[in-house]
Input
Amino acid sequence: MSAHVHVRLDHGLTMNERSELVELKRCQCGAMWTTIHWAGDGDLE
Ligand SMILES: [Zn+2]
Output
């Protein structure tokens, strides 16, 4: 079987226990990724 290439589909935004904005992405195979965006500090370099 050939290697599966994940496709990261947007799966919405949520807030964790520390009030950080968490971006969820999910592949159709079930793999998930989370990216934390710090709330209240928009400075990105
Ligand atoms: Zn996948």
Summary: Residues 38 and 45 are 13 Å apart (CA to CA). The chain has one domain: 1-45. Residues 4, 6, 27, 29, 31 surround zinc ion (CB under 6 Å). Strands lie at 9-15, 21-26, 32-37.
